[in-house]
């Protein structure tokens, strides 16, 4: 082409023209001779030849709309080409705004959206159920979207006929699959249990249709059929659920389907929307160049597709643990009662690992309703939970005769009842997902070895350890592993050790506060300080498949203390 700059774009307004049944006529009506039109052609060398021939035949044209695809523009200056592209896109947007004003969209609404809180509650119930059914071969993460454009589509009369036509632009269906799964749900009579009961059949039908599509369209040299599960789930009155191998891909798939909705909105309002023929879609999806890109993708990290829920997530051990798990590909939900520390930790993680990898919830682990709602929030944000790190903690010190009932109850409430509540909710979720699960308790050396002037703390920590053993027995048949890490004297970064506990333990050992860390180092058998990162390493081992055959176990990370030997 005789131009130094060529732009290629996929704006919704242009694709809405390109995907209309009479796209050639619409292009002429909107742009006149300024922008031409070419019939669909799969990206590649032949498309380049088509563009070359078009330019020779239409030397005054400034661009071309490619049927079912997008826009090409050209110029001899980068800025001129950029500004031309914006001008053409804005012209299409303005034309659609005028043509669709006052028109019935998607045939009109046939159901009403549920209130936002109900939509999120339904998503929280459905997403783990779906995730468990589509994630057995490869774990999936989810995203929920109930923006206005999505609700307008899923509530409409034409949801099913338009959804069945599939997306048109290759950039869309490469990420969303050619068509979504439309969930049979009536928001006027919201029976979520019935939807869950029907999921297996709905997924079976979708997979069968995908296999039919593959077998009808495959070539002798086509790659093997890929995952036949849907990526996009549309729920009337609720919104859109999207699933993929990682959070960013799930979110982006949803965003691309919103683009597809916008395209269908425009095309079907001013004309008749047409999806790409199945054979053409297949030849893009299973294009050998696309397969080569997939084969070159890096190997997933050890916790890819997993979601970890970390209580005490803004403290020293919790933060180090979350960082270790995210570094291995997990997404994390940071749960902590300290709102300021929580916000700071989430902001730091978003900068280091990307916003998709982390969410946070303020949580008092002693409050049953708060625990339940925090796990529901994790389900809406990521689709479910795979790993629970129960790490929220306090510490207190007093001789038994000076131990107030309030001190005793506070230790039991947080360290025993709190661990019970988060574990119970994790177990409920693990069983719904049917993907197994992993629980790691952060207990203490003091759960095995008694310590003077700390009866409330030591007893509560012992309760944690025994609770973990009980849960290991209950969870084994469902593939749920439960193990314990026992730290000792992890002072650095610890919120517990920044308070009275530090002074109390120094007084108990008859030393100065600033001598405490060195005192614990010398007391250990290995003469080493124990750091938050050391605890995080043990937690990662127990949370990962490195310990796939271990449950009911205890790992002491205390630099050696004979009192806490487990045998």
UniProtKB/TrEMBL annotation:
A GO term, aspect molecular function: oxidoreductase activity
InterPro entries, per database record: Aldolase_II/adducin_N, Aldolase_II/adducin_N_sf, Bifunc_RhaD/ADH, NAD(P)-bd_dom_sf, SDR_fam
CDD domains reported for this sequence: R1PA_ADH_SDR_c (cd08943)
Annotated TM spans: none
Oxidoreductase keyword on record: yes
Keywords on record: Oxidoreductase
Domain Class II aldolase/adducin N-terminal: 5-88
Family: Belongs to the short-chain dehydrogenases/reductases (SDR) family.
Protein name (record): Short chain dehydrogenase
Native source organism of the sequence: Rhizobium freirei PRF 81
């Amino acid at each position: 082409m005789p131009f130094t700059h060529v732009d290629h774009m996929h704006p919704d307004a242009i694709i809405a023209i390109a995907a209309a049944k009479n796209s050639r006529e619409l292009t002429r009506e909107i742009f006149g001779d300024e922008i031409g039109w070419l019939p669909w052609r799969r990206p590649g060398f032949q498309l380049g030849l088509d563009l070359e021939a078009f330019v020779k035949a239409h030397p005054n044209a400034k661009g071309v709309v490619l049927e079912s695809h997008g826009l090409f523009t050209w110029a001899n200056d980068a800025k001129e080409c950029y500004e031309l592209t914006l001008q053409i896109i804005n012209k299409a947007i303005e034309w659609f705004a005028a043509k669709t004003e006052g028109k019935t969209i998607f045939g009109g609404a046939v159901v009403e959206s549920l209130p936002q809180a109900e939509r999120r509650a339904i998503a929280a119930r459905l997403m783990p159920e779906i995730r468990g059914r589509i994630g057995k071969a490869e774990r999936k993460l989810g995203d929920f979207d109930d923006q206005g454009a999505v609700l307008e589509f899923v509530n409409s009369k034409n949801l099913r006929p338009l959804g069945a036509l599939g997306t048109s632009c290759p950039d869309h269906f490469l990420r969303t699959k050619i068509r979504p799964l439309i969930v049979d749900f009536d928001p006027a009579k919201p029976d979520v249990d019935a939807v869950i009961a029907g999921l297996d059949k709905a997924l079976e039908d979708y997979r069968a249709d995908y296999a039919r599509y593959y077998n009808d369209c495959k070539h002798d040299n086509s790659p093997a059929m890929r995952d036949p599960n849907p990526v996009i789930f549309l729920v009337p009155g609720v919104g859109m659920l999207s699933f993929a191998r990682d959070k960013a891909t799930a979110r982006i798939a949803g965003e691309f389907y919103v683009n597809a909705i916008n395209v269908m909105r425009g095309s079907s309002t001013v004309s008749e929307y047409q999806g790409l023929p199945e054979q053409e879609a297949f030849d893009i999806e299973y294009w050998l160049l696309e397969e080569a890109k997939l084969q070159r993708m890096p190997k997933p990290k050890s916790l890819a597709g997993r979601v970890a829920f970390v209580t005490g997530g803004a403290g020293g051990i919790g933060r180090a643990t979350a960082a270790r798990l995210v570094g291995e590909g997990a997404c994390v939900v940071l749960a902590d009662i300290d709102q300021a520390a929580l916000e700071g930790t989430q902001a730091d993680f978003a900068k280091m690992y990307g916003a998709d990898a982390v969410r946070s919830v303020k949580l008092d682990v002693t409050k049953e309703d708060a625990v339940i709602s925090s796990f529901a929030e994790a389900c809406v944000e990521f689709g479910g939970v795979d790993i629970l790190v129960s790490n929220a903690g306090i510490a207190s010190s007093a001789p038994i005769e000076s131990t107030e009932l309030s001190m005793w109850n506070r230790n039991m409430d947080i360290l025993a009842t709190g661990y019970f509540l988060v574990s119970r909710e994790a177990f409920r979720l693990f069983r719904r997902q049917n993907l197994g699960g992993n629980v790691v308790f952060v207990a203490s050396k003091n759960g095995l070895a008694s310590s003077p002037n700390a009866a409330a703390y030591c007893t509560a920590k012992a309760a944690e350890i025994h609770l973990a053993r009980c849960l290991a027995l209950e969870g084994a048949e469902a593939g749920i592993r439960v193990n314990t890490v026992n730290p000792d004297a992890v002072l650095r970064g610890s919120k517990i050790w920044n308070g009275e506990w530090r002074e109390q333990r120094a007084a108990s050992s008859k030393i100065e506060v600033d001598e405490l860390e060195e005192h614990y180092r010398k007391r250990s058998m290995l003469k080493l300080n124990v750091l938050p990162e050391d605890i995080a390493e043990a937690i990662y081992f127990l949370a990962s498949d490195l310990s796939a055959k271990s449950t009911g176990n205890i790992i002491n990370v205390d630099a050696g203390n004979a009192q806490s030997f487990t045998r």
